[in-house]
Specification:
The complex is a heterodimer of chains A (447) and B (331). By secondary structure, chain A is α/β, with parallel strands linked by helices. Chain A is built from 13 helices and 21 strands. In chain A, helix 4 crosses helix 7 and helix 7 runs parallel beside helix 8. In chain B, helix 2 links the parallel strand 1 and strand 2. Chain B contains twelve helices and nine strands. The chains are: A alpha/beta (447), B alpha/beta (331).
Amino acid sequence: MHRYPLAKGTVVIRGGAVLTPAGLVDADVVIVDGLVTAVESNVTAPEGATVLDAEGCITGPGFVDLHTHLREPGKEQAETIASGARAAALGGYTAVVAMPNTSPCLDSAFVVRAVLDLGATTTTEVAVAGAITVGRAGEQLAPIAELAALGVQLFTDDGTGVQHGGVARRALDYCTGLGVTYAEHCEDLAIASGGVVHEGAWSAKLGLPGQPASAEEAMVARDLLLAGELGARIHLLHLSTVGSVELVRAAKAKGIAVTAEAAPHHFTLTDAEIASYDARFKVNPPLRPDEHVAAIIEGLCDGTIDAIATDHAPHTPETKDLPFDEAPPGMLGLETAFSLAYERLVEAAGMRVERLFDLLSTNPARIAELDAAGARPYGHTAHGARVAPGIPANLVVVDPSARWTVAGTALASLATNTPYEGRSMHGSVRHTILRGEPVVISGEAQR
Amino acid sequence: MIGPHLLSIADLGHDGIVQVLNVAESFAEVEKRTMKKVPALKGKVIATMFFEESTRTRLSFETAAKRLSADVLSLSVATSSVKKGESLKDTLKTIEALGIDAVIIRHRSSGAPLQAARFLDDIHVVNAGDGWHEHPSQGLLDAFTVRQAWAAAAGVDPATTGSSLFQGKKIVIVGDIAHSRVARSEVLAYTALGAEVTLVAPATLLPPSVEGWGVTVAHRLDPVLADADLISVLRLQAERGSGECVPSLREFTETFGMTEARAERLKDGALITHPGPMVRGVEIASAVADDPRCLVTTQVHNGVAVRMAALYLLLTGGNAVLDHSEANRDA
């Protein structure tokens, strides 16, 4: 497969620390023709080499987002595969998994192939999560094997959970036989009862219909039981509650093959934000009170939650100006994820930088099978490995001391629906290198 | 000082509420004259935008605005470009371009008037009821109505009583509280004025939390009846799905309805309010609705004076001339 060619030429990343298999080491990184060839101090750059300044920075494996809504096909006014990929590169991502709730949705080989082909020439590698049921309707299984043959490793009806327990069980079972992973958007719609925010003090005060934490937790519990019983592997999307974290922690202790992700907004924002009725704070699962935020952080720190995933969900301004209950849920995430995670988890919660890279890169690459051991039949290069000679140069250089201010209109996404408008951020992505090509240099997208 | 918007009773606070009630008393005096108009808002333009139909609230606001001599634009959503897909923002911007001073908004979505206030520059926004959130003018007119009744019973001028008549009063709000914007506005008004508020409903019709509301919650009506000075009966909002929250209307009436038997057990001087429209035989028995202790028609009547007061205070800051005799000459 040659869909993802390695870039010719030599790049030297000079200065700062490098996340190697042995941990953080002060070193330069040499990339030749798309592969890392050396990680050592005081490298002499050969003539013609591109030299990237990384003084004071950390060079590590490029981030991998398990949960990106690229909106193409169907909502190209909010995001295209190209614009989303540019946002991803600026956010330090060298690979993203495109969610299937497009229009038409990603439930056929034809549409999946189109998305993969459009993604192959962008500034990040685009993998695909296929729909688990036809039309994401939760009834009939999608052509999972056919999509798996195209390299699809994750299957989900994200945007909604599979409501019917029997269908969910059958889908899990079917995925197991194919060696692909069922991923669930955990939300029992009957319990959620049309709620558009977290059910609690704020929903009560504001008169907005709330959905209780149990709407998420009931499906987490159901799916863990099914996965345990079938010996199936399962990935749980955007967990947001105390109970979900507890359930996953207990399931892991029992040896159930579960992985889980959490989104930056669920560990940085609370439901108090909705007091403004500003629909930029509307997201599903909804923002929750402090105790839930604390549980997500704890889960990220102790290994219960395996990955940070953005749930990047672009929406046009006109839809976000609708009344709160009518506006679509979702927020931009790709370009703010690293800064939020660095500030909240490393600076505030004392997480080690190595663990942060596990959450942003190594673990999601493994879950999506985009790592070296993964199947990657569509020809994606390997992501998520710590920096060492021989790996494809899918790298990010982050500057922990940088400060910047979020402005929706300055982001690369076509949409502007960031909930962090005007907020000062700690830490930024300085360079992103995709297969040896510097696609972002000093915070500027190169194409 | 009131304003620039009236989106929530919380925007007013104790002093603001009392100010509105007092100004409303003077407008109620105006209403008794043959010439009911005052020139306070002459030259001002007030628009009503009802995205959800409500004949009585719209008529009440428009009557109030006209009695203040404002020009009134009435946007009927059913015949406007909203039906053609125009957004709330563009509809508001269109109205703004017509040069209005205030807009009175009713919307099925909680928070829509707050969003409107963000979209508009220099235009006063009045919330005429948004989703389950609030209905501030209703809360004010309910407080006005019961203060007037208590003042009459005590033989005092209500305008001189401030909030004193509310101190220590036991107010029971019963029924579909979860889906009631009136309940939220009444709770804010009555607690701010110093009353002790108890919410009574089956758990399924209570909000998921009353944290910070400063109220007591009860799941049975009968034990709190005898002590109550005021029972505020709410409508079961069947159109908002409340029907699913109780086994049957019969059971709801049996357990939480203001039946004749329950009305018998009220203490002397106790009052009953209902924001309307009433569903006789469900939350309130027909005989109770027609009982002199039930103030429902007085509430409707007082709505005009209270809305005049709110509009007057919002648009003039209370500084315009309120010379009734001049108003009469002006005609």
